[in-house]
Write a structure and sequence with these properties.
The complex is a heterodimer of chains A (about 325) and B (about 325). In chain A, about 45% of the residues lie in helices and about 10% in strands. By secondary structure, chain A is an alpha/beta fold. Chain B has about 325 residues and is of the alpha/beta class. Chain B has 12 helices and 12 strands. The chains are: A alpha/beta (about 325), B alpha/beta (about 325).
Chain lengths: ~325, ~325
């Protein structure tokens, strides 16, 4: 990867970490950050995916994928508005971080129940086929979602029809509280789908360069008619599943400490230093990320919440109850 | 030559696919056996494999794909093999499709129709291939449920459903596939400018308002003809769109009759019929002085058609119910 692209990816990772720090701080002040799920430990994967995508690509994201969403064109203020579930978010305070909506940037939304995004990915891909557009669908999911049957149905249809979909498996070691080994008969995610006639690849998801390179190659193949692929990114979750999850109940301190030794931010920083960046300029980047996130929080924190009239007007098209 | 309801749906699909290059069809065995109801033979050859998509028996993939394609701006008519199987993709329908507009402040139309055979054909089909699912779906905001009862309405309603802008569950009654327009006394057909989906009064009358859809609408029309010979004047309402129903149509009729009978093939508890009665009692300018429901009881459809027939509301049941309401002044 070219060093400038790596620096771009590192900036996304820093922003993602700063978002986590800001959300943690807000929660400590008893501010509601509804449905916030921390991304600490997974930033390399999310940034690597993000910088490999083009604006025309569809993204079916996961709710921790702050860096991917930013790379896809969601503004920092919009993302904070979604995390705070207010009217400055892309979902105008109705769907929040679980339903980031920016269709003009390829983010059509997100299903609210694990497992149904795989079918949605098929439909998005079919639109690309019908309209002969050279773009791909990137469908990101974790261990919990990856055990729903819809994945296997969708992989079969995607393979049958050579649809332009990259199935991107985020293996952070846990489906909420259960380890991957406990829930996958092969002990990992990609082993379970290795029989499908498509590239099934497993990589170190904390290596931002490896992630970006693989996603770039596989999406490029998809965009040019080469069909679907499945990429498992092995990463690490440093946060609890969400703010109300006590991970000490299922993760002993030594395990968590070992996980922190895999912090992708430190790894990307060391890599940049080895490529000639100075610790001073990288420190400045970190400060700037923190300041940008703080400014975004200030800009949206007092925004009004959603309004009830919207709930009525957005149940049926143009607010029509009875057919017009 | 008059077309059956089955043929009319084929005609409607051709109308949609021809008029809109962005229209696609998704379903099981669409080409290999014409879909669930021998409706879609020849479409693959005519419109191509990019627009006519035959899927495995994978309802999560099929229904999810329909949503994804509609969200991406295509016009989608997906076929589910049986209304009873829609629940294989229950989460897609109830959690994703119905809520998509709200959760994603979707201001654009969603051109999405899920069409499927429903109701009882009375032919040894058992409890999982006979259900009238409109009662279950009636409790899900965001969905539309359309149940045509004549060949003419089936074609028009299908074409309109694709354009209405909301996801539509389009229930094709199994017992009606081979009815022809001339096989039953059909009401005045609305002119081309009037929406079929809004429903209409198909027979005017003064004594009792009868509301029914699907196969029960056909039974209601037969009953009205019998009752006319006996001196009873029945106003028959066909809502066509069962959810959200055009209740004002019924309430207008009640201004004349003051009596309401709702005929519903679904099980009694939580039926659409119950909702029609309650809305009339709560909201009609002239609430019905007397009312009744004819429904399936709260049991399962037996395989044996002789048993099943004894449980389905019949033309005779409707005749008797109307007479009892009309006498009960």
């Amino acid at each position: 990867m070219d060093p400038d692209a790596l620096l771009d990816a590192y900036r996304l990772m820093l922003l993602s970490r700063a978002i986590d720090d800001a959300c943690t701080e807000l929660a400590a002040q008893s501010m509601e950050v509804p449905n916030y799920h921390g991304a600490r430990g997974q930033e390399a994967m999310y940034a690597g995916v993000g910088i490999a995508l083009v604006p025309e690509d569809y993204l079916l994201y996961n709710y921790r994928a702050f860096a991917t969403l930013l790379a896809k064109g969601v503004a920092l203020e919009e993302l904070m508005g979604d995390l705070l579930m207010n009217s400055r978010g892309t979902s105008l305070g109705h769907g929040g971080i679980m339903h980031v909506t920016a269709p003009e940037r390829g983010i059509v939304g997100r299903n609210g129940v694990f497992g149904s995004k795989f079918g949605i990915a098929l439909g998005l891909a079919q639109e690309l086929v019908v309209n002969q557009r050279q773009a791909a669908v990137v469908c990101m999911f974790g261990e919990a979602e990856g055990n729903r049957g819809g994945l296997y149905e969708a992989m079969n249809v995607a393979a049958l029809r050579k649809l332009p979909i990259l199935f991107l498996a985020e293996n952070n070691g846990y489906a909420v509280a259960a380890t991957t080994e406990l829930l996958y008969s092969t002990g990992d995610m990609s082993g379970q789908v290795s029989g499908f006639p498509m590239p099934v690849i497993k990589i170190d998801g904390n290596d931002v360069e490896a992630v970006a390179d693989h996603v770039a190659v596989l999406t490029d193949t998809a965009r040019t008619g080469g069909g679907p692929a499945y990429l498992e990114c092995v990463t690490v979750r440093l946060d609890p599943h969400h703010a109300h999850d006590d991970q000490s109940r299922y993760r002993d301190p030594a395990t968590l400490e070992a996980a922190w030794s895999r912090d992708p931010l430190l790894r990307a920083r060391n890599r940049l230093v080895s490529l000639g960046r100075t610790p001073e300029e990288l420190g400045l980047e970190q400060l700037q990320a923190t300041e940008r996130v703080a400014a975004a929080v200030r800009a949206v924190i007092d925004a009004p919440p959603a309004t009830i009239d919207f709930v009525y007007s957005h149940t049926y098209f143009e607010g029509h109850g009875v057919t017009p | 030559m008059s077309r059956t309801l089955r043929q009319s749906i084929t005609d409607g699909l051709h109308e949609i696919m021809t008029a809109h290059p962005d229209a696609i069809m998704i379903g099981e065995a669409l080409d290999t056996r014409g879909g669930a109801s021998r409706i879609t033979y020849g479409f693959l050859e005519k419109y191509g494999a990019q627009r006519v998509i035959e899927t495995p028996i994978s309802e999560n993939a099929l229904v999810g794909m329909a949503l994804g394609a509609a969200v991406a701006g295509l016009r989608v008519v997906a076929e589910v093999y049986s209304a009873d199987f829609l629940f294989c993709a229950g989460s897609e329908v109830v959690n994703d499709i119905a809520k998509w507009r709200y959760q994603h402040h979707w201001d654009k139309p969603l051109h999405l129709v899920l069409r499927m055979p429903a109701g009882s054909a009375g032919s040894w089909s058992g409890p999982e291939h006979t259900q009238s699912i409109e009662g279950l779906l009636n409790n899900v905001p965001g969905l539309r449920v359309v149940v045509p009862s004549t060949p003419h309405d089936a074609r028009r309603a299908l074409v309109e459903a694709v354009e209405v802008g909301d996801p539509v569950v389009f229930l094709e009654h199994r017992a009606l596939y081979d009815v022809r327009p001339d096989a039953s006394p059909s009401g005045d057909e609305p002119d081309a400018a009037t929406s079929v989906l809004r429903g209409r009064v198909v027979r005017e009358g003064a004594d009792v308002t009868v509301v029914a859809w699907g196969a029960m609408q056909q039974a209601a029309r037969r009953a009205a003809a019998v009752l006319a010979d006996d001196g009873f004047s029945v106003e028959v309402v066909d809502p066509v769109t069962v959810k959200p129903m055009n209740h004002s149509l019924i309430h207008q009729s009640l201004l004349k009759t003051g009596r309401l009978l709702v005929v519903d093939e679904g099980p009694r508890t939580g039926s659409v019929a119950a909702e029609v009665v309650v809305q009339a009692l709560e909201d009609a300018p002239r609430p019905p002085e007397s009312f009744r429901r004819l429904t399936f009881p709260d049991v399962h459809h037996p395989f044996d058609p002789r048993l099943e027939r004894s449980l389905l509301p019949s033309t005779d049941d409707i005749v008797a119910a109307v007479k009892s309401l009309a006498r009960n002044r």
